[in-house]
Amino acid sequence: MSFVQRKIPFVGTVDTNPETKPFFDGCAAGKLVIPQCVDTGKFIWYPRGISPFTLGPVEWKEVSGKGTIYTYSVMERANPPYCIAYVTLAEGPKMMTNIVDIDFKDIKIGMAVKLKFIDTENGPPMPFFAPA
Total domain count for the chain? Predict the structure, then answer.
């Protein structure tokens, strides 16, 4: 089964939660920007304005966009089929995303992937991953 680009809806608005605005601004600029705990230095996924490690402040930083597939599942019954996965970013956190631009039978756990932004129907481009 091979990858077919599907329409990606965007639910809500970028302004729904002001805490996540730096993430969406980064997506609009073609950059993956995620929070980093000021006290521990750990990167955080999902985007939020307070560190879950210390309940302290975060700084928003651009990350490399490199990672490896931690686990995945191919949604074969969807029309068109797609692959959902957890990708372990080079900076540490695991990010739920989709794997694109690959025949689904070729996807493997531990496979190196790189960031690719895909346009949504009514919002900013969103981060997905393709083979590195």
Answer: 1
Residue pair 100/74 in contact by the 8 Å Cβ criterion: no
Whether cis (ω within 30° of 0) applies to the bond prior to 127 is no
**What CA–CA distance (Å, rounded) separates 56 from 47?**
14
| Segments forming the whole domain that contains residue 104 | 14-131
Q: pLDDT by residue (tens digit) across 53-74?
A: 999 999 999 999 999 999 999 9
pTM of the model: 0.85
The verdict on residue 75 lying in a domain is yes
Which is nearest to 127 in space by CA: 117, 10, 119? 117
In the predicted model, residues of the chain with pLDDT beneath 50 are none
CATH of the domain at 43: 2.40.50.840
Q: Report d(CA 10, CA 3) in Å as an integer.
A: 20
List phi, psi (to 5°) of 57: -75, 160
